[in-house]
Design a protein that fits this description.
The complex is a heterodimer of chains A (283) and B (338).
Chain A lengths: L5 H28 L4 H5 L11 H10 L11 H32 L5 H10 L9 H10 L6 H5 L6 H12 L3 H9 L4 H12 L1 H16 L3 H6 L8 H8 L9 H31 L4
Chain B lengths: L3 E10 L6 E11 L4 E5 L6 H9 L6 E6 L2 E2 L10 E4 L11 H11 L4 H14 L15 H14 L4 E5 L7 H18 L2 E6 L2 H7 L2 E6 L2 E6 L1 H6 L4 H6 L6 E3 L4 H4 L6 E4 L4 E4 L3 E10 L3 E8 L2 E8 L10 E6 L5 E3 L8
Parallel strand pairs in B: 3-8, 3-9, 6-7, 7-8
Antiparallel strand pairs in B: 1-2, 1-4, 4-5, 9-10, 11-12, 12-18, 13-17, 14-15, 14-17, 15-16
Chain lengths: 283, 338
């Protein structure tokens, strides 16, 4: 703001506080609900302060020892499945996009621009659009209920390829020439020079793709049928299968909290990397 | 160390009838250990020529030989050369030591020898305390020295410099120029140095190639190029302020062929009491000397006087006599020296 009047300051603070409350309050309710028993939650009004059952609830959720109508699957297993899926998708997307952007920018081959535009066109084909044919292919290959079946259809990324292509175009031509003079072949140049220079982009994309992989719902829903292959977001849904009054809301909230921790950790840890990358100016 | 041989080098972009030829048959022999500067205005093809020697551009026609070996089909790394770029081209994420060691690492030189070569280059260039720094933590002049260090450790037969001083400020340019001269004296490696700055060319070259529009106009020592320019282009390019070229000068009176261009450098016009009548239009005071921008009829001339002489008033008429042992005659159509 150019003008600083006490009234505008106050208004700004009020709006910001309201925003924080709107976002943080449901989170707070979830945390509180995960520390009471199911019966206590159903009292009205719902208790607003954390209760004593935190450890018990989380242990029940993680190990799947409850006896509700919905899924009792151990959340620990579901977190593992989600983690494997998110990591595979994030790392797979980054590796594949780095290589395809490298090819498109630094090599001349027939149909190069056609390939580039074909990749571009796949932006119009998110999972939701191609779910039918993809399911057919994955099922025919016998990959239902496997990690491969859950991750491979999601492992190529046009956005990441673009990002890397744009970045590679900013790398000065002379760096490539200096590397040539030093005797570095293409893959050597890629590994020793291009990848380290792209580390900020890689960090940013890792966060985005990890969260994308972690929150995948539609595809795992279709591609898995046994409850030891459910990712955690689907697990939460199945825990609520018994109807509102029979759902163990305390365990559901505990599971939801557990589901939020890894992505939050990834964002917090990676933030340090971006800031470092943005602060270092390069020539 | 090796001699470089350029034999009728031609560069074309594109193929067939629409091909654009940018270098028209350049031939030159550079002796072993010689420092040759390729100088010319922007777009004359000097960088293209250098890059063909380096292997970064295809040679459309002709041969380049380094040390007696024809290198047309060899990769840059196989030609035993090293290049210093205008923008330094240092690897930003590697330390100075790693930047200099990279080429040797790829060539699988053993680590102790890498360390020894890098340390030696660092001591020649006074980079010892900076070996663990990254390029972004260094000034432009230091970065350029790292780039030179990277070239030195390869112990090549030929050094190639592509306008390395253009990104430096004026004072640093002079300093780095002296360092390059010192380096050449110490190491004696055959060098090709490209620049558009004729001062750099005059001070650094043992011989220079003056290029214009893809053609080599003259290949000689700085003295030859300055005192006996082969074409009007060389005459006006070398020397600041440039040589005066008169279309309708008093050729007959000076014993020259009629219809030729008369060339006389500003410092060779002496102010006398009689001689050519010039009207002073503008005067530039440069400290040690003055430049008088004058007019004689339809011709414009520059006269250089030193600050000791009396300064003529702007608008007045002065008389100059050319030094008759410093006249140059050029053919009007071809521009060649007569």
């Amino acid at each position: 703001m150019v003008e600083r009047s006490p009234k505008l300051d106050f208004l700004a603070h009020v709006i910001l506080i309201l925003g924080v409350v709107v976002i943080a309050f449901p989170l707070y309710v979830a945390i509180v609900a995960s520390t009471h028993t199911a019966a206590e939650i159903f009292q009205s009004p719902m208790p607003m302060l954390p209760g004593p059952h935190l450890v018990q609830n989380y242990r029940e959720a993680l190990l799947g020892t409850g006896n509700a109508m919905g899924s009792n699957a151990p959340v620990a297993r579901m977190m593992f499945v989600s983690l494997v899926m998110a990591l595979t998708i994030a790392i797979g997307k980054i590796v594949i996009s780095l290589l395809s952007a490298f090819a498109v920018v630094y090599f001349r081959f027939p149909f190069r621009m056609l390939c580039f535009w074909a990749i571009f066109v796949t932006l119009m084909l998110p999972v939701e659009v191609r779910v039918g044919p993809t399911y057919h292919v994955v099922a025919s290959l016998g990959l239902i209920n496997t990690f491969a079946g859950m991750t491979i259809p999601l492992i190529a990324s046009a956005t990441a390829t673009f990002l890397f292509r744009q970045f590679f175009l900013t790398v000065p031509e002379e760096l490539v020439e200096a590397a040539r003079m030093d005797g570095a072949g293409p893959m050597r140049f890629f590994w020793d020079i291009l990848v380290p220079l792209s580390s900020t982009s890689i960090a940013a994309l890792f966060v985005i793709q990890f969260i994308y992989g972690w929150t995948q719902y539609l595809w795992p829903l279709i591609a898995t049928t046994s409850d030891n292959m459910y990712p955690i977001v689907i697990g939460i849904r199945y825990m609520m299968a018994g109807g509102e009054s029979l759902t163990p809301w305390n365990l559901v909230m505990a599971t939801a909290m557990l589901a939020m921790i890894p992505p939050a950790l990834v964002v917090i840890l990676m933030q340090k990397w971006f800031v470092k990358g943005l602060v270092d100016t390069e020539k | 160390m090796a001699a470089i041989s350029l034999r009728n080098i031609i560069k074309r972009y594109g193929t067939g009838p629409k091909a654009n030829q940018v270098i028209h048959g350049v031939s030159a022999e550079v002796a072993d250990g010689e420092f040759v500067v390729i100088v010319g205005p922007s777009g004359c093809g000097k960088s293209t020529l250098l890059r063909m020697v380096a292997g970064l551009e295809e040679i459309s026609d002709g041969e380049i030989a380094i040390g007696g070996r024809v290198v047309n089909d060899l990769e840059p790394a196989e030609r035993d050369i090293a290049m210093v770029f205008q923008n330094y081209a240092l690897y930003p994420h590697m330390s100075v030591f790693d930047n200099m060691a990279y080429g040797l690492k790829i060539a699988r030189v053993p680590l102790p020898e890498i360390k020894q070569r890098v340390d030696k280059a660092a001591s020649i260039l006074e980079l010892g305390p900076y070996l663990q720094r990254k390029p972004r933590e260094m000034s432009g002049g230091q970065r350029q020295r790292v780039a030179m260090g990277r070239a030195i450790v390869r112990q090549p037969q030929v050094f190639l410099f592509d306008e390395p001083l253009s990104n430096l400020d004026a004072k640093l340019r002079v300093q780095t120029r002296l360092e390059i001269q010192k380096l050449h004296r110490e190491l004696g490696i055959t060098s090709l140095f490209v620049t558009h700055d004729q001062v750099e060319a005059m001070t650094l070259a043992q011989r220079m190639i003056v290029m214009n529009a893809g053609r080599m106009e003259q290949f000689g020592t700085p003295e030859e190029v300055y005192a006996r320019p082969a074409t009007t282009f060389v005459a006006s390019f070398m020397g600041a302020p440039p040589m005066n070229l008169l279309k309708n000068g008093p050729n007959a009176a000076l014993g020259g062929p009629s219809g030729a261009l008369l060339g006389i450098r500003p410092e060779h016009l002496e102010i006398t009491s009689d001689g050519w009548a010039l009207q002073v239009e503008t005067m530039e005071m440069l400290g040690a000397e003055r430049l008088l921008y004058c007019r004689m009829g339809a011709e414009e001339l520059i006269v250089r006087t030193h600050e000791g002489q009396a300064a003529p008033a702007v608008g007045s008429t002065i008389h100059v006599t050319p030094r008759v042992d410093r006249l140059h005659w050029f053919d009007t159509t071809t521009g060649h020296r007569l």
